[in-house]
Amino acid sequence: MAFRNITGLVFSLLFSVGIYADELEINPQHPEQYTVVAGDTLWDISAKFLKSPWNWHKLWHGNPQIVNPDLIYPGDTLYFSMKNGRPSLRLSRSNEVKLHPNLRKSSLTDEIKTIPTDAISQFLTSPKVLDSDELEQDPYIVDFKGEHIVAGSGEKIYVRTITQAETLDYTVYHKGQPYISPETGEILGYEALYIANASLEREGDPATLTITKVQQEIRLGDRLMPNSEKTSPLNYMPKAPDTFIRGNIINVLNGVSQIGKYNVVVLDKGLKDGIKIGNVLAIYHKGALVADPYKMKDSTVLVKLPNEVAGSLMVFRTFAKVSYALVMEANQAIHVLDKVQSPEDY
């Protein structure tokens, strides 16, 4: 984990030589030096020096000689300078760090993460987004053993239909709200709300399973899906999408009404649109319709104000037609139906 997925990001973001300043926008308020502290993220550190923290790949491609970069840890100090019109950063290790030949002694949890992973960890395995075909095909609960009205941990449920199972572990979920395209009205998928975990005892129609963990009340008709151990990475390589993307924020997760920094939102673009994990998009607040002050008597004359940049977000989980993203920057209030698109320096 310590060296996985970090190689390209850390030094390509920060240890730059050989790239002209006019090819990369430097933050005009950048510090001359910065000492890394616990709780920092690579995104925030990069933003101290770059106007667009996701432009790490430009630095990387400009520095092919950096083959095996190290990691950044709390206590390390970064020194910024301009040499022959080119930006450069030098690293000084903390005096408290013990060095050994080809080995750095540190905890695997000490390295600076790209983003605050605690903000997204609960969304890496559940909820999920399924299309209508998946919903109709998944097995569902038809009864509880022992004439129970509801089932709790340790109790058995009967499920149609599980035969030739490839796993013993299942997730019980409830069909949630549909995600709808605000532009076409198409249903992009349904939220699969996590209810419980269950273990397969006997295949069949019905099959018998035992509830192993309960988060919400289990209902007749709730469906099951195999438990997948595959999870999204906890470190990311932020970059602009490979193709131009324009979409919308269609929901905000975790029950919040105000969208701000480190909130998780749902986008109406997914794998089929070219969205990938790590893609960074700019957020635009939708411009309002206002009356023309010189034509107030004509209520049909309205002026559409331009969309204004409200922040940026990074995609961390993808589905066929929607994706989950973490708001990384918010310079004004963000709302459902605000626009997202590839950054201006795409």
Output the radius of gyration.
25 Å
In sequence order, what are the helices and strands, one letter per element?
A: HEHHEEEEEHEEEEEEEEEEEEEE
Helix run count: 4
Distance between the termini: 30 Å
Please bin the fraction of helical residues: under 10%
What is the count of structural domains?
Answer: 3
Spans with pLDDT under 50 lasting ≥5 residues? 1-22, 59-70, 96-108
β-strand number: 20
Strand content: 25-35%
- Molecular shape: flat
Can you give the mean pLDDT? 81
Largest sheet: 7 strands, antiparallel
> Which structural class fits the helix and strand makeup?
mainly beta
Structural commentary:
8% of the residues lie in helices and 34% in strands. The strands form five sheets. Strands 6, 7, 8, 9, 10, 11 and 12 form a seven-stranded antiparallel β-sheet that branches. The protein has a six-stranded antiparallel β-barrel with strand order 13-14-19-18-15-20. The protein has three domains: 7-114, no CATH class; 125-226, Thrombin, subunit H (Beta Barrel), CATH 2.40.10; 246-341, Thrombin, subunit H (Beta Barrel), CATH 2.40.10. With 346 residues, the chain is mainly beta. It has helices spanning 7-14, 42-49, 56-61, 132-137; strands at residues 33-35, 77-83, 86-92, 99-100, 103-104, 128-130, 140-144, 156-160, 169-180, 187-202, 207-214, 223-226, 246-252, 264-267, 280-285, 289-291, 302-304, 308-318, 323-330, 339-341.
